Amino acid sequence: MALSLVPCPLCFFLFVLLPFFTNAQTYSNISLGLSLTAQNDNSQWVSPSGDFAFGFQQIDNDGYLLAIWFNKVPDRTIVWSANRNNLVQSGSKVQLTTDGQLLLNDQSGTQIWNANSVAAGVSYAAMLDTGNFVLANEDSDILWESFDQPTDTILPTQTMDQGGELVARYSETNFSHGRFKFTLQSDGNLLLYTRRYPLDTSNVAYWSTITSIGSGYRVTFNQSGYVSLIARNGSLLNYVFSVAVSTQNFYQRATIDHDGVFRLYVYPKNVTSSGGKWPMAWTTSSFIPSNICIRIMGETGSGACGFNSYCRLGDDQRPKCHCPPGYTFSDPKDVSKGCRQNFVAQNCDTASQETDLFEFREMFNADWPLIDFESFKSVNEDWCRQACLSDCYCAVAIFRDGNCWKKQIPLANGRSDSSTGGKALIKIRKDNSTSVASSGSKKKDQSTLIITGSVFLGISIFLNGLLLVANLMFSHRSSQQKSKTVHPHSHQGNLAMNPRSFTYNELEVATRVFKEELGSGAFGTVYKGVLGSENTEFVAVKKLGKVVTVTEGEKEFESELSSIGRTNHKNLVKLLGFCNEKQNRLLVYEYMSNGCLANFLFGDSRLEWFRRTQIAFGVARGLSYLHEECSTQIIHCDVKPQNILLDETLTARISDFGLAKLLKTDQSRTFTAIRGTKGYVAPEWFKSMPITAKVDVYSFGILLLELICCRRNFEMDLKEENVMILADWAYDCYKEGKVHLLVEDDEEAMSDMKRVEKFVMVAIWCIQEDPSLRPAMKKVVLMLEGAVHVPIPPDPASFISIS
């Protein structure tokens, strides 16, 4: 999360001092001897303004919670509780005794909780307008306060010193201690931890402030909405949250939620004060970490979700827990308990006999890290599958970049995110299959099975013999016919993905004689079509333009087929089929319902920052696959927003491989005529230099800048000349420390400036004039993900090397 300093040092010290002036306000005293009873009469002790109340709240039908809540918010949001781990029943009572003790007794009179006020002389209690419930003496000195014993929330004017912590509730409706906590340790470090639930001890840290060890002294929440970590001398170390919102117009709270995310919430006190910008509901203005699903990494614990499940961010940026294929939630009402297999696991005694009874379900960009019991390098996917299939302990295999990891139950730290990469192979039992008979079966049953099996085996051998003879006769006749009709340039036998061969008439019918045009480019026009017996499968049919000679047309067509037909990646558009009849050459692709990226970047509707980052990851991964993971390296040569399509989930898919230049495995460079689109073309195209995969890296760098800024690389209509060329302006902003100018109209991006700056740095490396300075796409992916450090980029025209 981006951290910034307060521009006004004096203002900061005023903010720090604000929490210590809470004694100066007015409040209504609660006299000694008064009490409240847990019942449905809404009895409570209210602050002078009515903003907060202290009393009992009923939690479903489970019992009552002695709590403090926002009294003017419709759902009466709870911010503190005394008995979160031990609800009481109707008839229980909280009393300020005549000797100054604040006690909670259940309906039988047994003490459940007390305020532990050790100082003598309590004269009264009060519910303050800050949300702090206090016990004070006759001089109004506070002897005990709820602010010193926070549960999962801190409020404006509240502080938390070393050793203090907030513990998340277990679920939305269960206020007992949960699985996460936010703590300022006694050594001065501020962290978010998973807990060794149900124990209170810490497990794995998944977020921390960036300070020198031991320097943190106090967390403060001031009235301007800043949550800060300060040193003992009062100096600011850094911000946890730095979104300025006035407490005069908004209620605010910072809560560690049951999902482990620490969020800053605001709620308008009235529609007028919010200016119509904020809904009359709690709204998240900031949160950490940005993606908890991928932040929790530990050798113990289940991760963000339960064992055997995986975590994925939803559209609302909140983590959601899911079960992998073949698994169901152990308790659908409590997904944090994880998932269980809904099939009979592989029997280790008979594993070799059961391999045919199991299969794999694929999950892209999914992983359960740090729990592998075996790993292998320089293997292919088929080898990885077989290794897991023959191992009864292997529940999941992860295949990524030629590496194979075998995982066993229980699966932990599960996540699904575009930054993960690779493929998870989930081993499940095939439908309608059962486990091999146990060794304890009766001999009579075994004999019956043997006899029955023998009879069927004899019949099967006889029938198979007849079928084999008939098949040989049919194949011989069929091969004679095919040898007379097969086109000399047919690719049907060479395509790894086996695209279907269509007739021209079939595609005329599918496109209604090429009626609905989706787009056009240098090598043809794309039309919308529909296939399937019920006309439900939409496709995109690319009709290659007329060429001067048949040879040239064949060459272009074969380039398309050999490029796309051998690829298989979630960030590439898939080739479904082709037509090759005389002068008619067409390609059939899967249909992308959301069109091209250019419509979202340069149109009226702008994609949110999070979506743009995911698209950047996707394009980078797709290009890395083309450059380094295909058996024959593929250079796209025309990477631009118009060639990035978006599917129904807005996942980026690289399209139009018609310009691709294929290199054999022993080649690294090629000389060719200029290809590509103005503005995205690498400088070496104009210098008679050898063309490498680095031309795609350059184009990606320009595309990445466009994704960051939501504008074209060149815009002549802009008034200021220095911002017309995006690449030059971006470097100037970076060099001058003003990267925020690139996204100043984008609130979401402005709140994620650390990532914005990293993306800009990566883009500058990609657009270096010297191709040798540009990183390979594989390294670009790692830099974007944060797996490797991004060094300071030079001026794109300089000659400093990047390793």
Automatic annotation (TrEMBL):
Q: Which UniProt keywords apply?
A: ATP-binding, Disulfide bond, EGF-like domain, Glycoprotein, Kinase, Membrane, Nucleotide-binding, Receptor, Serine/threonine-protein kinase, Signal, Transferase, Transmembrane, Transmembrane helix
Listed under catalytic activity are: L-seryl-[protein] + ATP = O-phospho-L-seryl-[protein] + ADP + H(+); L-threonyl-[protein] + ATP = O-phospho-L-threonyl-[protein] + ADP + H(+)
Residue span of the signal peptide, if any? 1-24
Where does it localize?
Membrane
Domain Bulb-type lectin, residue spans: 30-148
Q: How does it sit in the membrane?
A: Single-pass membrane protein
Similarity annotation: Belongs to the protein kinase superfamily. Ser/Thr protein kinase family.
Q: Which SMART domains does the record associate with it? A: B_lectin, S_TKc
Binding, ATP: K543
Into which EC class is this enzyme placed?
A: transferase
- InterPro entries in the record: Bulb-type_lectin_dom (IPR001480), Bulb-type_lectin_dom_sf (IPR036426), G-type_lectin_kinases/EP1-like (IPR051343), Kinase-like_dom_sf (IPR011009), Prot_kinase_dom (IPR000719), Protein_kinase_ATP_BS (IPR017441), Ser/Thr_kinase_AS (IPR008271), SRK-like_kinase (IPR024171)
Enzyme Commission number(s): 2.7.11.1
Q: Which Pfam families match?
A: B_lectin, Pkinase
Q: Where is the Protein kinase domain?
A: 512-792
| Segments traversing the membrane | 449-474
Name-wise, this protein is Receptor-like serine/threonine-protein kinase
